[in-house]
Every structure is written in C-alpha cells, then in structure tokens.
Design brief:
Blueprint lengths: L10 E7 L5 E3 L3 E3 L2 E8 L4 E8 L6 E2 L5 E2 L5 H14 L14
Antiparallel strand pairs: 1-4, 2-3, 4-5, 5-6, 5-7
Length: 101
C-alpha cells in the first residue's frame, strides 16, 4: 500500500508561545499568548491547521488552512507553522508548499 493508512490519522500537536502579533484565525482574528497548534493530514492530501489557547476546549482554524502538503511532509509543515506562530505578526498558514523553507 502506498501513502498513509486512511484509518490512522496523522497529526502533530505542540504548545508554543505566540510572538508579538500572534496568529490569525478565521473565527476570532488574532490569538496571542500560550497556544496549542495542531496540524492534521486530510484524506485529500492537504493539511488542516488549528490553534487554541493552551488548556482551552475551543479550536480555531489558522487563516489559510487547509494547505497542500509540501514534499517535505506533515512534520516539516508543522514545524514551519510553529516557527511562524513564534515569530507572530498575525501568522497564517503558508499559501503553498513553495513557502515552506
């Protein structure tokens, strides 16, 4: 079988301190402070990225999500998102795999 097992969700979840200007969400605009970031592979080959205030129940869609999965893979995408949130400035999902360093 090629590719990920559809029965097994591929997901990375980490806590991060948002940099000045936080991260931009579709639902509530900018979120700041201690955040939890979740990057999840979708069956269509794209990735969903969501953030929440660490310890909260409600998740928010990071603006620009979903995004095509870059050739570097889901873990590399997740690390890139964490870096963007740490830098702040209204971090958003990269619009294309080409933006992934």
């Amino acid at each position: 079988m090629n590719g990920p097992d559809p029965a097994e969700t591929q997901q990375f979840v980490d806590d991060v301190e948002a940099g000045r200007g936080g991260a931009m969400t579709d639902e509530v605009g900018v979120v700041t402070g201690e955040l939890t970031v979740s990057t999840t592979l979708r069956p269509d080959g794209r990735a969903d990225v969501a953030v929440q205030y660490t310890g909260a129940e409600e998740w928010y869609v990071l603006t620009g999500s979903p995004v095509p999965l870059p050739s570097a893979g889901l873990e590399a995408l997740h690390r890139d998102i964490l870096d963007r949130v740490r830098r702040g400035g209204g971090a958003q999902e990269p619009r294309s795999p080409a933006r992934l360093r």
